[in-house]
Design goal:
This protein is an alpha+beta fold. The protein has helices at about 5-10, 15-20, 45-70, 75-85, 110-125, 135-140, 145-155, 155-170, 215-220, 225-235, 245-255, 260-270, 285-290, 310-330, 345-360, 400-415, 430-445, and strands at about 35, 185-190, 195, 205, 335-340, 340, 365-370, 380-385, 390-395, 420-425, 455-460. Strands 7-8-9-10-11 form a 5-stranded mixed β-sheet, with helices on both faces. A two-stranded antiparallel ribbon has the order 1-4. A hairpin with a 2-residue loop joins strand 5 (about 335-340) and strand 6 (about 340). The radius of gyration is 24 Å and the shape is globular.
């Protein structure tokens, strides 16, 4: 079933959260946005910009003090730093990668150990800026934006609790005692227990780390010749560096001296920006608007779900047809573009999820986003049990279309124990050859008497408004 927004759960207008510049989180799944500590002192929220920053700095300074005292790994000071540098995912803030449920998890011990080693290495260079933690996504293969976000959340939980308490009190949202903060907070029932929730200002959230591409690295380095030269040397001979090779190269370059490290940190801080709601590259807010408006889509058809997967397949194909119609004829294609660039696959996935949910709720069909049956997370699974399961995978036309259809989807089908699957291609104007190729693959399978996955191509290319058509 579709996720539930905080505003829905507590019966308030989502506009109130917008006015307060707070994220309206899902209470039963995570929004894949992340708190970036580089954005704390840029926030428009006074509590975050002042108290939150102080709390974050003080927390990190304790880690630095212990690592400075430590003479070797696993001595008393090192163990103290390990305990303080908690990498447990704080499920209370509703952001991160965990889309199927909101249960905090702890990252592997070796990630924390390597993180502490690198921090200590940087301290020896003479840098003690707490915001150095933001660069760990550049330097360590096992450290992603979620790790940095979770540590930051824990460090400034006091400020987040204060913001949440004030907002909820002003909007008559019930508050309760909790084990997270001295302040009373809203609670939700999860995993058999009542759990507190904290709200997060939107302007300290981003969708991906700055290290998402080499372009970002060079942009951060362009004003520092020494750093740029170091990176060039480190990358010499690597035509297409892997993520691990990228991070190793950056780490070797920026840890040459304290001056270079501080210059890189300052460059990254200057470039840091929050997630743009207007551009909405991943479609989070467009999806939320669908839920707020309670938009439903119905063709008036009936389905005999007792006939199992065949009817579930027909229902989902009809939902896709409505999705296509809204993109073709109701300008929904605009929600799939950010300026002149196609949005990421997640934007199309969320919009289809919202449309399909209206069908599924009316026929008691489960609509699960990104389930993992053992072969990796498929985009969607529909049905009322394994015997009527239909899976859907969605790709952009300029992505890995052929391997997605021929290999990836087949692996998902095997893991999900179903022969019923739909491969959706969102056509942004590139990839016609790949679309033709998977159609040929499907025809070949049909000729052999096999049951190939269905193919649905949706034209998301930019379209002229009716007033401009001649």
């Amino acid at each position: 079933m579709r996720p539930t927004l905080f505003s829905e759960k507590f019966g308030i207008s989502a506009d109130e959260l917008d006015k307060a510049n707070l994220l309206d989180p899902y209470i039963d799944t995570d929004t894949p946005l992340f708190i970036d500590p580089l954005l704390i002192d840029k926030s428009s929220n006074d509590i975050i910009r002042k108290d939150g920053l102080v709390q974050f700095q003080q927390y990190f300074e304790k880690v630095v003090r212990l690592l400075t005292m430590s003479e070797e790994e696993n001595d008393a000071a090192w163990i103290g730093a390990e305990k303080l540098l908690s990498l447990k995912e704080p499920a209370e803030n509703g952001v991160g990668y965990s889309r199927s449920k909101r249960a905090g998890t702890s990252r592997p011990t070796e990630v924390r150990t390597q993180l502490l080693k690198t921090v200590k290495q940087v301290i020896k260079l003479g840098s003690k800026d707490p915001e150095m933690l933001s660069l760990m996504g550049f330097l360590e293969a096992g450290v992603g934006p979620d790790t940095i976000s979770d540590f930051t959340t824990i460090a400034m939980m006091g400020a987040l609790a204060e913001i949440t308490h004030a907002f909820c009190s002003a909007n008559s949202i019930p508050l309760s005692k909790n084990d997270l903060s001295d302040m009373h907070l809203p609670v939700i029932f999860r995993n058999g227990r009542l759990k507190p929730v904290v709200l997060v200002p939107r302007d300290i959230l981003r969708d991906l780390p700055v290290t998402d591409s080499w372009g970002d690295v060079w942009a951060a380095a362009e004003h520092n010749r020494a750093l740029r030269d170091k990176l060039s040397v480190m990358l010499a001979g690597i035509a297409q560096p892997t993520v691990v090779e990228q991070k190793e190269a950056i780490k070797r370059a920026v840890t040459q001296s304290g001056e270079i490290f501080d210059a890189f940190l300052e460059a990254v801080k200057s470039a840091a920006t929050s997630y743009d709601q207007n551009e909405d590259i991943k479609g989070f807010f467009t999806f939320r608007d669908f839920i707020k408006k309670n938009q439903t889509f119905n063709t008036g058809k009936s389905y005999d779900i007792r006939k199992r997967p065949e009817e579930v397949m027909r229902l989902i194909l009809d939902a896709l047809d409505v999705f296509r119609h809204n993109i073709d004829n109701r300008n929904l294609w605009e929600a799939l573009w950010a300026g002149d660039q196609p949005k990421r696959e997640r934007a199309a996935q969320l919009l289809f999820f919202a449309i399909a949910d209206g069908y599924c709720r009316g026929h008691d069909i489960d609509n699960v986003s990104e389930p993992n049956f053992g072969g990796g997370p498929v985009d969607f699974a529909f049905g009322d049990g394994c015997k009527s399961r239909v899976i859907v995978e969605m790709k952009r036309s300029h992505g890995s279309v052929v391997s997605g259809y021929e290999k990836q989807l087949e692996r998902y089908k095997k893991a999900a124990q179903t022969d019923f699957a739909i491969f959706v291609v969102i056509n942004y104007g590139r990839g016609a050859k790949s679309i033709d190729e998977i159609r040929k693959i499907r025809e070949q399978k049909l000729a052999l008497g096999e049951r190939p996955s269905e193919i649905v191509v949706i034209d998301a290319q930019k379209k002229l408004s009716p007033s401009k058509l001649r």
